[in-house]
Structures are given as structure tokens and as C-alpha cells.
Amino acid sequence: MDIKIGILGPTAAWSSTGDDVPLKGPRHRMLLARLILARGRAVPLSVLVDDVWERPPADPVGALRTFVGDLRRALEPNRPPRATPQILVTKGHGYALRVPPRNVDAWAFEKSVNAARMMAPQAAESELATALQSWRGPALSDVDSEPWARAERSRLTELRLQSVEIHARARIDLGRIEETIPDLDAHVADHPWRENGWHMLASALNQMGRQGDALATIRRARTILADNLGIDPGPQLQQLETEILRQTDSRTDSRTGTEGSERLWITATDSFRQATASSGGSRTHLRTTVDVLRNLAITGGSGLRLARAQRLTAIRAAEDIGDVELTARVVGAYDVPAIWTRSDDEDQAAAVVAAARRTLARLPDDASDTIRAKLLSTIAIECRGRPDRGGIVAAAQAEQLARGVDDPAVLAFALGGVFMQSFGRTGLAGTRDGIGAELISLSARGELTTYEILGHLVRMQANCALDELEIADFHAEAADTLAARYESPLVSLFTRLFRALRLAMTDQSPAVVAAAYRAAEGELANSGMPGLADGLIPLALLAVRVRHGRPAPVDPDIDWGVHLPWVRPLVLLAQGNPEGAAEALRVVPTPPPGHLAEALWCLVARAAVAVDDQVAMRRAYVALLPAKAEIAGAGSGVVTLGPTADHLAALSTALKR
Fold first, then answer.
1. 3-state secondary structure of 74
2. Within-domain flag for 8
3. N or C, which end of the chain has less CB nearby within 10 Å?
4. Interhelix angle for 195-207 vs 211-229, to 10°?
5. Whole-angstrom Cα distance, residue 310 to residue 295?
6. In the chain, what is the greatest distance between 2 CA atoms, to the nearest angstrom?
7. What is the C-alpha separation between 318 and 16, in angstroms, rounded?
């Protein structure tokens, strides 16, 4: 039987006649989807067990083999008894699917899209019109919460959006513009971050002679991108706007306000690009690019993601030129204030640190202290959240050099590095409060608004740990006021999380506190800060439960992110598995130095007391003791587990038993 399998929607299978093939229960479909994603490669039994169950049954291998037998009968109903399976085959200590690429809807769709890219408009339009009909809903929709499915689901979703745009381009090229415009309008309404979609819609309107509507579309794109992502339209859309404006008689100097500033930006960037291109100004391009990336990073969202993606490219381009002082300026010019101790891209951070150290080693003896301080500050900031002393040493050296330079900006950058390296042990909230105060004072002297905001956020966090909520309130309000005045959209995320934390610290009802945290989830997901977002809200909600004496949630769909090793013992206890919790505690790592170290140690302490793990209790006690006068975890400005002294008392009592 010629079986076809579909994952462009819920996992499904069909016979050669188009009839549905019964796949039994959700675990059967999950197993089939997992094997499809392996693309014909064998998947070991151990991997399948881990991927199919969050908490495996007593005999997971036996259960899995039962599922395999059920799927084999469904996929090959006419196979004689004891005949070797031809579709779901045994391979070593695992299983693999053997199906032609044309018989899996996702593989066939991908082939059609790639072929359409190279086709003439008529053929591309026909190919994609057919291919798009194979979608029955979101890809892998019945397993979309599984970690092993997320990357492929995202990839297929992006491929579908590209196919819609290629299909629209083919229809426009065929002269079918009027019928394509409504579809493009719906496309950008559903996917407003697709700048290519906005460009195609505005271009189509322009081709129809509807210049006013085209310009209105670009303005709508600009507003939506700014409001949702905190960025301006890209060069392609800006260039189209310039071309349309040049076609019309509406280019008058009477335009003012926002529209006038947008046109000024277009003119200025066009002039700069032409000037540097004609003069061969690669050095100027690099220096200016870093300035733009620094400003993009402050906007958060896709601006921050773009800045992060391009930063290393700029550094490597500078190194390729071979001018060590230029490289030093490019590396050190990215003085974006950092407020969170977990890196958003650890591989990139390591590469930036390596480049900064290479550059430091190659600097001439007469290089300025300013350049050296900026390189060392970069190292201190990019080494945040690491348990080695390299970042601490760099921060101290940067501060020493910066204090000898009469430049508030250089010292503010260095203090940002000192702040990032002030989490080497617990109990340093008072030290961080002092750093924040100096940042605010420096910023007032040097008109360093972004560092003034950082200072207020640092003091907001520190005073949460010190249980000085009125002082924390003052700094949250000050940060919000400055952010509104200078258009710094990321700030509101941290102050919103603080206000949820404040509810938790003042013993509001768990439901009220949980609602406040969940209200921040959307903004957090779009912040462009995966190091902050990964597992943060589930951790905050767990802290609320722990403070109110409730067990950890056992929902297998909760994504604990990087916090799982410290959460897992409590989850296993909640599942009635103290032996598993004890084993998890025996291998639990030391939390990395950072905002959440105290909170994670408190979770370890609670689980260790529950299973009477003396070693884990001693580790937690020693780690938490310096913070005995603080509120545990509250220095993050996000989560709290109550007074550290309470956890130390519980540990002390248990250790004496």
C-alpha cells in the first residue's frame, strides 16, 4: 500500500485511495511524528522513550514496542504474518521510517517551494497554488509543545510564509496585481513582522497607481513595527518609500513632525551611504555600523536580535582590515547597558570576549587608557553569569583605568561591568545599590540617559533584596519616566516584572500574583532577550507556590528552560517520587552566578530538607548564609522565596536532626 504521511497539521496518514489510516492514540501519532522528523535515520530506543514520555511508565521499552507493532499494522495492513516490515523498520537498537520523500507532505512541500524559487512566474504560481493546499493547519500541531518538534515546526512555518510571498510575487509578475492585493493585506495583518510582505503590498499598490495607499501602507508598517518590535522599517522598505515620494508632487517642505523626521532619516542615510561608498570609507562604515547596532540594541525586540546577530560580523570585519585600534574601537563601542546576568547568546559572548582579548594583546604600548578600559569592560560584561574569575578581574581592571580617565561615559561602561560581576556570591545587594547610585550620579553629570536608567533599575532590584520597597518603587517610577521620554521600550518589561514581584513580597493572593506574572509573558517573549525569558515565568510562578506551601506543578508541558536542574527535585517530589528527587539532588549543579542564584539555592534547600540530603543541605546553607539579612531571590527584581533567614533556619534545624 502506498502510504502518505502528513505533519502539515496534526500528524496523520492516508492510504493510496485517500482514506484515513487509523493511528490509535496520541502516543502513536507522537511516535510517528518523531520518526518522520528523523528523515529516515534510526532513532535509538532510549531517545524515543525520553521524547515520548515526560514520566515513562514502568516498562517504557515494552510499551514503545507495542506502539511500534500497532503502527506497523496500520501502515502495512496487508503484510503477511512474520514478514519483514518495509515502512517502520528495526535498525540496530532503534527504529526508522522508510517512505519516499514524495509521500510525506512536509518533504514534498519543501521540494515544491525550492523548485518554485527557480521557476518562471506561470510555473511557480501553479506549483505553489497546489503545494499550499497541503497545509491542514499549523505544522505538527498535535506535538507543538514537545522540545524535539519546536525547531522543525518553526522551520516549516517560516517556509510556508516564504511560499505565500513567492506565490504572491509570481501572481504580480503575471499582471494579476488587483487580485493579489487583498491576499497580501491579509498576510501582513496576520504576520506584521514580515517586512517583505509589507514591501510587496506597497509595491503592488504603487504599480496600480495608488501611491497614496502605498505610502499609507508603509506608514502602517512603520507604526506596527515600532509598536510591536521597537524597530524602524528596513532599507528595502525605506528605499521604496523614497522612490514613491520622488514619483509624486507631494514632496514639499511643509511636511513636519514624524513624517518629516522620517524623510530626514532617509535623506541622511542615503547621503551617508553615497558619501562613504564614493570615498571607500570602510572604516567609517564600521564605526557608524556599531553606533547603529548599539542604538538598535536599546530598542529591544527584533532590534536587539538584529544588533546581536550583526555585532560579531562587524568585529570580524574590523579584524580583517588589520587595524588593531580600529578593531578596539569597534569592539569597545558597543557600550549597551546590561541589566540581566544571563547571556542571550553564550557562543557569541565567548567569541566577543576572545576578540577583545586578542585586541588587548595586540594594542601598542601607547594605546589610551580609554580604549583599554572599554575592551576590559566588554570582557566583564560578556563574561557575566560564568563561574570563572576572568570577568571579575577584567571588571576591576576596567574600573581602575576608567577612574583615571576624565570621561563619565567610560566610567559608566566600566561600572556596568562591575555590576555584571557583582554576583560571585550571594548577599551583595548593598554593593549593587551603591553601583546603581554612582551610575545615576555619573549620568546626570555626563547626560548618559541609558546608564541613568540602568542605575535606577539596579537600585530597584537591590532594594527589593534589602526589603526597602518604597525606595524600589521610587526607582521603578524614575526608570519608567526616563524610558517614556527617551523611547526605551525594554525598561517597562523590568518594571512590570518588579510590580508582579512587589505583589508577591506583600503577600497578595497567589492568584493575583500569578496573573501579574502572566500579564508580562507576551512582552517578555518579544523582548529579544532569550537569556531573560527562558523559563522565567514558570520559575516565578513556582516561587509563588513554594512561598504558600504548595507543591511544584507536575504539568509535563511546562518549559522550565535552563532552570530545570534546580526545579526537577521539587517536581519529582510533587510526583510522589522521593527516590528520583534524591538522585536529582545528588547531581544538582551549583547555580551560575547571577540574579537567580539565591532563588535556585532556596529550591535546592527545600528539596534537600524534604529528602534529608545532608550534603545538599550543607551546600545550600553555605551558599545562602551571606544573604541571611536579605529577601531570597528578590535582588533579581523578578522572583522571591521570602526571607533568606527562614530558609537558613529550616536548613539549620534539619542539619541538627
1. helix
2. yes
3. C
4. 170
5. 13
6. 87
7. 59
Confidence at residue 249, expressed as pLDDT on a 0 to 100 scale: 47
Residue 95 dihedral angles phi and psi, to the nearest 5°: -135, 155
Name the burial class of residue 470, with classes exposed (0-12), middle (13-18) and buried (19+) by CB atoms within 10 angstroms of its CB. Answer: exposed
**CATH number of the domain bearing residue 19:** 1.10.10.10
Q: How far apart are CA 8 and CA 437, in angstroms?
A: 54
Residue 329 lies in a domain: no
Give me the number of domains the chain comprises. 1
Q: Does some domain include residue 522? A: no
Whole-prediction pTM? 0.61
pLDDT confidence of residue 361: 94
3-state secondary structure of 91: strand
Neighbouring-strand partners of residue 95: 43, 90
Rounded-to-integer distance, Cα 553 and Cα 556, Å:
9
Per-residue pLDDT, 254: 41
The domain containing residue 40 runs over which residues? 1-175
- Burial class from Cβ neighbours inside 10 Å (0-12, 13-18, 19+) for residue 341 reads buried
DSSP collapsed to 3 states, 435-475 = HHHHHHHHHHHHCCHHHHHHHHHHHHHHHHHCCCHHHHHHH
Interior angle at CA 52, CA 46 and CA 58, nearest 5: 70
Q: Strand, helix or coil at 559?
A: coil
pLDDT tens-digit readout, 574-615: 999 999 999 999 999 999 999 999 999 999 999 999 999 999
